[in-house]
C-alpha cells in the first residue's frame, strides 16, 4: 500500500459519503511520498476530480527533484505553514488530519 493509494482511498471514501474535500494538502520529505505526489498530480488532471477538489497543494520538504509542485525548506517552515493555515481557518473549521 502506497501513500498515493491511501490519498485516493480517503478521497473516494469522502465522496461516497457525499462529502468532498475543498482543500487538500500533502507534505512529505522522502521517496515514499513521491507516490502520493504523483497520485495528487493525476487527480488534479482528472476533470471529474478537479472540479470537486478546488485547491490542491503538494509540498516536499527540501530542495530536490520531486513530483510536488511546492517546496518547503525544512520542518520549521512546515510548522509555520500549518500554524498559518490553522489561524486562517479559524476555530469553526473542520480539519481531517491523517498522519501517514
Mean of all residue-level pLDDT scores? 80
Main beta sheet: 3 strands, parallel
What Rg, in angstroms, do the CA atoms define?
14 Å
Count of helical stretches = 4
> What proportion of the residues form beta strands (DSSP E)?
15-25%
Task: Please summarize what this structure is.
With 100 residues, the protein is an alpha/beta fold. It has 4 helices and 3 strands, in the order αβααββα.
Short descriptors:
globular, alpha/beta, 4 helices, three-stranded parallel sheet, 16% strand
Your description of this structure?
This protein has helices at 3-16, 34-45, 47-50, 75-89, and strands at residues 23-28, 55-61, 70-72. By secondary structure, the protein is α/β, with parallel strands linked by helices. The longest helix has 15 residues, at 75-89. The model has no long low-confidence stretch (mean pLDDT 80).
Amino acid at each position: 500500500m502506497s501513500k498515493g493509494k491511501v490519498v485516493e482511498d480517503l478521497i473516494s471514501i469522502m465522496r461516497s459519503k457525499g462529502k468532498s474535500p475543498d482543500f487538500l494538502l500533502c507534505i512529505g520529505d522522502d521517496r515514499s511520498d513521491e507516490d502520493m505526489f504523483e497520485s495528487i498530480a493525476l487527480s488534479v488532471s482528472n476533470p471529474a476530480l478537479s472540479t470537486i477538489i478546488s485547491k490542491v497543494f503538494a509540498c516536499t520538504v527540501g530542495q530536490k527533484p520531486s513530483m510536488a509542485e511546492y517546496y518547503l525548506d525544512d520542518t520549521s517552515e512546515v510548522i509555520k505553514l500549518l500554524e498559518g493555515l490553522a489561524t486562517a481557518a479559524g476555530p469553526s473549521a473542520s480539519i481531517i488530519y491523517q498522519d501517514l
